[in-house]
Amino acid sequence: MKTAEIYTILDEIAPFSDAESWDNCGILVDNKDFESITLTLDLDEKILESSENNTLFITHHPLIFKGLKALSSTKFPSSLVFELAKKNCSLIAMHTNYDKHALNDFVLSEVIGIKEYEKNGFICEFIWNSSFDELAKKVKNAFEIKHLRVVKSSENVEKVAFCTGSGADLIGSFEADCFLTGDLKYHTAFEARHDKLSLIDIEHYASEKYFAQSLEKALKKYGISAKIANSLNPFSYM
Q1: C-beta neighbour count of 125 within 10 angstroms
Q2: CA 230 to chain centre
Q3: Which of 128, 162, 182, 227 has an alpha carbon within 20 to 30 A of 140's alpha carbon?
Q4: What is the pTM of this model?
């Protein structure tokens, strides 16, 4: 199958034109033809080494994000670009376009179990009308997070905003009592507590590790099968 052919299908699932201007989505490495598809949150050395030649990798996070001023066979990410070329592999990234059209919806409905919500760009909003502690417990269990970081600004929560990945910059664009997202920083937490906005840090990796699962489901509707590779969380707990 041609890389351009699968690109057209992916564009129907989540239009690449809807990616943020700072993002780098689309075909990043193109060897024109491929024999199999592997879906993964990130491309890493182990996944690439264990894959066959002529594989098309579809990732959530772009391997090439900022402009490359030099190429090195030993430094990330260009080292992986060299290996992709050696194995005649291709690479497509679906990042912010996929967040908007698919991933946030999939995680909220299929992982957390919230079926009724409203969507506005990256943000999904739903009514909770219960205690903050109950919401935190539900989130912790859903994502299997050992130590959940929270900012508890009130005992009860009526309206919740949700965004996978790193959504702190979206604070201020919605009205809610609690915000679920990842990569929350100290100053964001400090300001949110002052402004009576509760926060639950769902972690970047934990909230987006379902990318491959969700895209596999979408591709099946087109009669396309794909393998899932699980990239590892770079963080570990001691």
Answers
A1: 17
A2: 13
A3: 227
A4: 0.95
Distance between CA atoms of 140 and 135, rounded to whole angstroms? 9
Write out pLDDT tens, residues 166-198: 999 999 999 999 999 999 999 999 999 999 999
For the CA atoms of 148, 152, 158, 159, the dihedral, rounded to the nearest 10 degrees, stands at -60
The stretch 103-118 carries a mean pLDDT of: 98
Question: β-pairing, 36-40 with 26-29?
Answer: unpaired
Q: How many residues does the chain have?
A: 238
Higher pLDDT, 70 or 51: 51
Q: Is 181:201 a contact under the CB 8 Å cutoff?
A: yes
Confidence (pLDDT) at 37: 98
User: What stretches of the chain adopt beta strand conformation (E)?
Assistant: 26-29, 36-40, 55-59, 90-93, 118-120, 123-131, 149-151, 156-166, 178-182, 198-201, 227-228
